[in-house]
Amino acid sequence: MSKFPADFMIGAATAAHQVEGHNIYSDFWAMEHVPNSVYKEPSLDAVDHYHRYEEDILLLRNAGCNTYRFSIEWARIEPVKGEFNEQEIEHYRNVLNFCHRHSITPVVTLHHFSSPKWLISEGGWESEATIESFGKYCRYVVSRLGQLIPYICTINEANMGKQITKIMKRMMSAATPKKKDTADVQVGLNVDMGTRMEHYYRELGETFGIDPSKVQPFLAPRSKQGELIIMKCHETARSIIKELHPAIQVGITFSLYDHQALPGGEVSVRKEQQEDLLDYLPFLQEDDFLGVQNYSRKIHGPEGVVPPDDTARLTKMGYENYPTALGNVLDFVASHWSKPIFITENGLSTDNDEERVEFIKQALNGVYRRIEKGIPVIGYTYWSLLDNFEWQLGYDQTFGLIAVDRSTQTRHPKESLSVLGTISAGGID
């Protein structure tokens, strides 16, 4: 039996907009409801985690897990610029207190993709003003809840805009976009360069009251200036958190692939690794941990990324089911980062829970072996706790450890939840 260290954190993760429901002041709510929306369906009441969080956290705890990563929704906290909602702060205080009462370590993400609608109307994630706005939001939250939060991820997948930018460039340069590109990002994002997208952005311009070309949500192609703004937001948040509660452990998360080279693909691998993580390291030197999020691998040939061969097992998202990718990514990260590593997302979208069980066991075996090698991995939160709203792809994707009948919001825990809890409590066979 391979048993993790006694203080190792194992649990699951969610994001507010994907599970809570009725996030009506957010940019995503607006984007889901405009005419010609590219979203398959609106989030609506999602899986009603906002009202059912106690039930969901107890299912996680009763299975044997000890950690829950979730996000606080900026659009709920500050629905109108400068007007903070104390009632919503109390809601998240209740969530945090419930975690502590039931011996669950809460890991809080301050920004997980969704933003207040007003922020996008003011320039969004390409505007210098966002740095100050994000700082004020962080100060408000941490000043009221910081004593209950041991770990904070400031921003989820800070490199996602860069990854989207690369996909768009590839698609624009191709005569016929490849089907594989639609699943090239580790989120439910379907990038479509056609006429539908043009109509969609025209509608967004009207909704946000700005030039359609200036609509800049977090999940959008990003300029170099936008990349710098994200990092300045992180640095600002970290400074505020440490000022208010120095004991809080602060980090940021990145979407990272296991980049593997075929003969001649080594240069392409090094380029992707540089862009995915290494470019950001100068901004992270004062962080306490690094959040690693991995779902699959990318194979590189002399001309760049090549699709999986016909023998590869694919997930419902369309990318390769390759659980050993996580251990390989840990090796890469540890060669450039000596502080603690927190695996904040890793998971599988499948309708066959036996595949999910296999994925979890193989992924965590890889994690255990890296800990034995001395890599300072401190936690693992599977994505996700619940089958949820997978952004543009709606409710068809099934990453969850718990299925939800959305007609009744009844929870149906899967065997994979029990397996993850057993590993947390006892280890891996």
Q: Class in CATH?
A: Alpha Beta
- From the alpha carbons, calculate the radius of gyration and give it in angstroms: 20 Å
| Number of H- or I-type helical stretches | 14
CATH architecture: Alpha-Beta Barrel
What name goes with the CATH superfamily? Answer: Glycosidases
- What structural class do you assign from the helix and strand content? alpha/beta
**Mean pLDDT over the full residue set:** 94
Measured as a percent range, the helix fraction is 25-40%
Please tally the β strands and state the result.
13
Enumerate the strands of the largest sheet in spatial order, edge to edge or round the barrel. Answer: 1-2-3-4-5-7-10-11
Instruction: Describe the global form.
Output: globular
Which band does the percent of strand residues land in?
A: 15-25%
In angstroms, what separates the terminal alpha carbons? 5 Å
Architecture overview:
- It holds the Pfam family Glyco_hydro_1.
- GO terms for molecular function: beta-glucosidase activity.
- Belongs to the glycosyl hydrolase 1 family.
- There is one protein chain.
- With 429 residues, the chain is an alpha/beta fold.
- It has one domain (9-426): Glycosidases (TIM Barrel), CATH 3.20.20.
- It is 40% helix and 15% strand.
- It has 14 helices and 13 strands.
- The strands form three sheets. An eight-stranded parallel β-barrel has the order 1-2-3-4-5-7-10-11, surrounded by six helices. The protein has a three-stranded mixed sheet with strand order 6-8-9. A two-stranded antiparallel sheet has the order 12-13.
- Helix 3 (49-63) packs across helix 14.
- The longest helix is centred in the middle third of the chain and has 21 residues, at 224-244.
- Residues 175-183 have low confidence and may be disordered.
